[in-house]
Amino acid sequence: MKGLGVSSGIGIGKALIIDKNQLDINKNYVTDVEKEIDRLSSAFETAREQVNELYKRAIDKLGEKEAQIFKSHEMMLEDETLISEIQDRIKEEKVNAEYALNEVTNIYIEMFEKIEDEYLKQRAEDIKDIMHRVLRILMGIVNIDFSRMEYSTIIVAKDLTPSDTAQIDRKKVAAMITEMGGKTSHAAIIARTLGIPTVVGIDNITDKIKCGDTVICDGKTGKVLTNPNDKQLTHYRQKKIRLDEINKELKEQIGLPTVTKDGFLISLAANIGTPNDVELVLENDAEGIGLFRSEFIFMNRDCQPTEEEQFEQYKEVLVKMGDKPVIIRTLDIGGDKNVPYFDIPEEMNPFLGYRAIRLCLGNVEVFRSQLRAILRASVYGNVKIMFPMISTMKELKDSKKILEQAKKELTHEGIPFKDNIEIGIMIEIPSAAIISDMLAKEVDFFSIGTNDLIQYTMAVDRMNSKLSHLYSQYHPALLRLIKGIIDNAHKAGIWVGMCGEAAGDPKLIPVFVGMGLDEFSMSSPSILRSRYIIRNLNKLDMELIANNTLDMENALEVEEYLSCVLSDENGKSLKRCKSRRKKNE
Ligand code: PEP
Ligand code: MG
Q: Does the Cβ of 497 fall within 6 Å of ligand 1?
């Protein structure tokens, strides 16, 4: 089988199928009504035990207040009225427990959804949650606990949400394979951050692989083999050993400066989602954090984190990073990053919708509490603040105004913060790229978000694996936009980085160095290879190569040309493309 490799490396292990779409409920007539009622009672009992276990773990991890949600789920599972209504349905209609449960709970869900009061409306979500839990137990669908997997697990799923992926233990998961998703879907980005080989875009993957099958997954070529023979196993084991050796050699780059052969210093930073990711950042000797996707702090929970909770997490990252810069990007939810308690109404085009800075400017309290938390944490390290998805000057000015208000509040309350914090924006929307000359006068830095910039420039959903041929970081349209952004930033005297996935692409690093990019921020496992590449480049040569790409007709031509420029993608040798070189000289 072949899909799209989105996180390189070889994974070999046993498949674990995660099929969340199995909750199709059929209406079946039963003869043994008592047996159905027993099944129902024992499913409720198991659900109560599970929720109680979750409650205990949440107290340890999140504290009493956050854990309360599981207590209220436990109480609902003890609700005699609800249980007897379901039992009555089974008796009266002689139907299976799954059907009766679904019918009865749906009446309550609809009732709560109609209530105006926001708090009571939310209870519909709780009922859905417990209903799904009991249904999964009745239907024998294993509840996946992402944090408690066996070693060498190959996760096989139709789709993985960013919040699913964020819970994965990188030491236990050997690879991931999904049907949905693109190279820059957030699940893929997290996979790269964690260094887990991943392949997406294989249709009906959950039918093609069975639980417990031995699977080989090549995250670079996109190849997936099930129950391989000895020859194939030996081949891929050797390939894995070779990759491990290259990674070991790259460790020699630790401690070296990221400087081109002709003496241009470049900043090499890492992208993170949670404080736990800092371990890999330091292991790979990144010079800072160029993108802290703060929205991950808001995921996998039932309510918004308080200012205090956020403060603790930002402080933890800053303390761990010492005096190295940490760019905290303010909340960027929406698109494929769903946070249910924000209750974003369903939209036709979520990636073009109410997300990121748009949502923050519409929920000033949420925004202000995040800014206050970052400001308070600022005294513990070298923080910079970055706003995502800026598309107009007004959004930027409004965001800065709210930041100023937050500063004023803290000053008034006598709470210390650093007052010389650099402020930057992501350039990830074509309108921002086009007016980057104006935006540059308002900020201290730009960071180019190629993941979104590609999707909005090419009009291709970044999640759609069927359109991955159009979603390309090599397209000259994108490269021209990037060149314009860098030039505009430099004209205004500010520095410019890149935190989209293109920043870690070995073929494009020479191009961006040639264009004058000051900072590259990428997944931690890509850092040392990128340092190796940069240390073997002459910036002045790369200027010519970068210019050449701008005149090419299409992405394929650019990619082939760059493959020639950097013949070995592992960065072990840098041969120039002779014919092109002649043209340059
Ligand atoms: C981007 O769009 O390039 C980016 C870095 O942000 P995200 O991937 O979180 O949308
Ligand atoms: Mg983005």
A: no
- What residues are paired with 225 via a beta bridge? 216
504 Cβ inside 6 Å of ligand 1: no
Active site residues: 186, 499
Q: Which domains does the chain have, with CATH numbers?
A: 4-19+145-249 (3.50.30.10), 33-138 (1.10.274.10), 265-551 (3.20.20.60)
> In the block, which residue shows the tokens 């003496």?
263
pLDDT at 334: 86
Collapsed DSSP state (helix, strand, coil) of residue 496: strand
Q: What is the DSSP string of 202-270?
A: -TTHHHHS-TT-EEEEETTT-BEEES--HHHHHHHHHHHHHHHHHHHHHGGGTT---B-TTS-B-EEEE
Q: What's the gap in Å between 353 CA and the centre of ligand 2?
A: 13
Residue with tokens 């402020």: 423
Q: Compute, in angstroms, the gap from residue 427 CA to the centroid of ligand 1.
A: 10
CA atoms lying within 13 Å on the CB side of residue 77: 26
Does any ligand 1 atom lie closer than 6 A to the CB of residue 213? no
Does ligand 1 have an atom closer than 6 angstroms to the CB of 451? Answer: yes
> So what's the pLDDT on residue 570?
39
Query: From ligand 2's centre to the CA of 348, what distance in Å?
Result: 19
CA–centroid distance for 8 within its chain: 16
Identify which of 499, 508, 520 to mutate to test ligand 1's pocket (most ligand atoms within 8 A of the CB): 499
Check residue 569 and give its pLDDT.
Answer: 44
Give CA–CA dist 522/165, Å, rounded.
Answer: 18
- Ligand 1 atom closest to the CA of 452, numbered from 1: 2
CA-501 nearest atom, ligand 1: 3
Which of 293, 357, 425, 505 is the best mutation target for the ligand 1 pocket, counting ligand atoms within 8 Å of the beta carbon and taking the most?
293
pTM of the model: 0.78
- pLDDT single digits (tens) 304-317: 999 999 999 999 99
Report residues of the chain scoring pLDDT below 50.
569-585
Residue 196: Cβ within 10 Å count = 25
Q: What gap in Å lies between CA 63 and CA 52, rounded to an integer?
A: 15
Atom of ligand 1 nearest to the CA of 450: 3
Cα distances (angstroms) measured from residue 78 to each of 46, 84, 132, 210, 432? 12, 11, 16, 36, 54
pLDDT of residue 163: 67
Which candidate, 439, 457, 441, 440, places its Cα nearest to that of 449?
457
